[in-house]
Amino acid sequence: MANWVVSLAGPRRVSLEPCPPDPLGPGQVRVRTCYSGISAGTELTLYRGSNPRLSKDWDDTARMFVPRQAAPPYPVVGFGYEEVGEVVEVAPDVPDRHAGQLVWGIWGHRAEAVVAAAAVTPLASGLDPLAAVFARPGAIALTAVLAGDLHLGDWVGVFGQGVIGLLGTRLAVLSGARVVAVDRMPTRLEHAARLGARLVVDAATDSAAAALRAATAGRGADVCLELSGSYPALHEAIRATTHAGRVVAAGFYQGYAHGLGLGEEFHHNRIQLVAAQVSGPTPAPGTAGRWTGPRIAHTFMDLVAEGSVDPLPLVSHVVDAGAVADALALLDRGDGDVLQVVLRF
User: Is the full-model pTM beyond 0.85?
Assistant: First the structure.
């Protein structure tokens, strides 16, 4: 079987390259990829060359970035974390996977992969395979909601209505929150309204902080979730939050914090600023021992399977994997009508 993998040779230099198939070992399955979604956050930072892992080394033991000792690690091969595929080969010692089974997991943008059988999850019966590319983005959004510790009746601002922001809006609504969705793109705000946002704010023309305070008799949001990765949006989320309220910073912020003034509302209103990141030992603060990464992803996919979340309207483009350079360039432009872009293998 021929194999192909997406390779990044440098900033904005991406292609689909041939590669040899990996041998199948004990406890493993071979998966032929059907779809692989492209992240408009992490993967764009790799594509643009701004990801800190390209300029620094990550010390996994100390959990710190340290100065890089070598040149940037190009080529970056097989990045990606939104895969759906068909099992085509199973190791003899694997009892619970079989050829022909549709599964989802993380194995990168490649035509086929050999992975641990336990690392892939069978698709729920009757579910459109395309919906499973949202397992990881949905887990990212759910991690932010868990970190926000939302309660029934809370007023919650969700800043950024890209794919993860829209999923966050839906999950916050399901939690019982009164959601105010914030973005600069009207088409995305229309999606947010359909997903249950009580109010939408066009940040290009209106102040989200003013809107949230008006909606809450001057208090401000109980919690704000910042999912765009924009420092000015994080600043506005802090402004919009009530005294001693919580802001969850779940975007992938790049470079230094231009547009973020921590001497203003953050300081004077004693805002709790917490980070949420789906990987690592504790994805959401305060949930250690209960909400692991796998539980978060499986919970999101359960919500999709039962119909509480329908991510399919967020798929804006499905393109052949050979057009990966065009797909990433499309996301890089940041047009408002571009949401989830999916590679078809």
Answer: yes
